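Re: beginner question about structure tokens

> Can someone show what the tokenized structure looks like for a real chain? I only ever see the sequence side.

Sure, here's an example I had lying around. Input first:
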Amino acid sequence: MQRSTKLIIGFILLPIGVLVTPLLPELGVPIILLSTRFLQEKYEWARQMNIWVDSKFSSVKAKIRRFRKK
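And the corresponding structure tokens:
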């Protein structure tokens, strides 16, 4: 996918996610996270957010694995 296409998709999804989040957070938050995946190629703030989300997600997965082993 071309860089300009990714930016357009990211900038379309971001405000949609922000508007949907107060009403349906279970839908709005994933839309925002998806938009940052598209925007991370050009914007450092989106890349940093994705790094933070990935680390938190990995931490939660590890905790769930430890809990299941008990």
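Each token stands for a local structural state, so reading them left to right follows the chain. The mean pLDDT is 95.
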